[in-house]
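Moderator note: this is an archived Q&A kept for reference. The question asked for a predicted structure of one protein chain; the sequence and the answer are reproduced below.
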Amino acid sequence: MKINWQRYVKLPLFAILLASGFSTFAITNTTVSVSGTNLVLSWPSYGYESYLIQYRQTLSPTDSWSTVTNAYPANSTSRTTFNIFGIVTPQSHITSHTNHTQGPPPPAPAFSVVGGTTTSTVLVESPNGGTAPLALYPPGFNLSGLTILDPNTGESVSVAGYTVNASTLSAQPLNQSSGSTAPTTGFYRVYDIPDWLVSLSGSTNSGPTFIPVNYSSTDAPTNYVDDTTLLINGQPTDYASFMSYPINGINYWGMGIDFERLPNGTNTIQLLTTVRENDLSGDDTTYMVFSNAPQTIIIANAVTFTNWSDLIWNNTSYTFQAQSTVPGVNWEIDIYDINGYYVNSQTGYSANGNISWTWNLTDYNGNLRSDGDNDPFFYPYIIVTTASGNALRTKVAMIRPNRPTPKYKANTPSNPNPMPAVAVAFPSVGGWVVSYMDNFYSDGRTNYDPTSDNSYRDAGINAICGAAAYYNMPFEKFAIAYGRTYTQTNRNTSWSNLKSWLYDPQYRNFYYFGHGAPNIIGGDINKVGSSNNIIEADFLTNSTAYLKSKEVYDNIGFNPNGARPYRFVFLDACNTANGNFAPSFGNPNQSVGGDWYLSSSNARNIRPSAFMGWSVETGDGPGTGWGTPDQFWSFRNNWIGTWVGDTQPLSNAIYVAGNISNWVPHGTLTQHLITFGDLDLQIGQYNFGGDWP
């Protein structure tokens, strides 16, 4: 991680970090003061925020930040304060060095700095402009090179040859036994963490609901939120989307939560937010993971869908399931297609409140509607009434075509929402999106050889496209606008277009070559090292040239408008196996055998699938330790060429390609090229609508 030293103010004994040099973020205008033996941190606040406060003794790479407190609530609408008790030794004063032997003692400062209240007002100014009370400096500290400043008079003097002494050392730092020594240096940093903008404690929640979150523009701007997870009772849930929503004319960012998918009762709710700390896409990409304080809420839906399946997986039938909180109810389920046209319906009665209907996938005319090309999603609505005629849930009077994003607000009879969307598990044949960063090898380099590097890359990309064509799978070859020859608009638009292809339910296989990190792929321009090798990518101002794992999650793996899990994904970029990309594409986040997909462990009934990504920074060229560009692309040529064999499992294709290409040792491949899901998946297997289970 690159350190920007200018963002630190380093002070003896204890220091306040005005803005984190280990990140792009952290609260600015943070100050330190002394009150008796206490250290007081303060920073601007509005009164509704929550904060993470961390400390480290040194900036050494072997030292790390420790948490002083988390989810600390703001205590002021102007400046929040935080006290660290008993940590300052009192009554510091200046004395000349006892070992000063070269020449006469230096002149004393022109004003008194000894004892009394003067100690708390005299400041010591460091060369980079930061100041702190003299009382913070420990006995024996050499003040040479610093400036003593009296803020009352403005008088100052540069100090050389003086150290700090104290008239009394009776006060011991907290948690330190007699005879031990307090830390001589230290740093604090304060983060404004993502937290709910409203208090949820004790609230009652039902239906799809949007809850706004304070994503601080300083510490957690939404462009840098690469992933966010909702915890219910301490466990992650799939039924929450990161989204924006207008409230009273103001667009807020927050979480859309489908409470109807969660059991009724008293629960805790909490956020885990993964925030990228810099503008890099590569091995130097760093993250902070923030957590707010859990709050206790009540989930109370009249009708819940805790046993719901969002995929029609067996091509012959699908069972709708719901639970009413009261027994003895009449129900009606109406199904509409993606264009808003009526498909079929059923009515029934439940004595115990459990509602179930197995639909044979035909419409009201008896036509089969299991073709995933024409009917990728269905939108069911339910009416539930008690015996006395009281409506527990009803539906909108008119269904509009092209159903918009779900309405994240509480469901009531006068403000109804549809049941969760249902997706046909697979189209007739899953298409491929084969993408790569254009100008990847040339951007920013001076020793680029277009006759070799590009030809190797093009051969590898064409081989992957050719494998899809061999099996009559549709494919889209997509060159992503990348590098300095494109404008920011070009690059942003290119990624927007790529997402449109990926979000199309006809495509279920994805290969990407370019820059990446655990929860993001993409970038704008190459960052080149001193040896002229490509190190990583930079994101420039106003960039949206990326794809985040949370975007994939909300639009592909767990799309509230209809899920579309991918069958095969290879994110051929640095560290993409270290984050949440695999489950976001709907793939198990572990290696499993083929039998797993027919077991109860496969709760969603997803089809056999595989995800490949790297757990380290990879590359090619001299000094990278990863061979040459021709070996790099030889591995990919031989991997896809071997996998084309009708009976070749994915794991064997990787092994054979490693041996033929001689790119890196096989042990390196097996250790760092991570495969989740079905290791035995074949290239044409389970890629057609009716071939599973």
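Archived answer notes: The chain has four domains: 5-87+187-191, 195-303, 316-402+414-424, 433-678.
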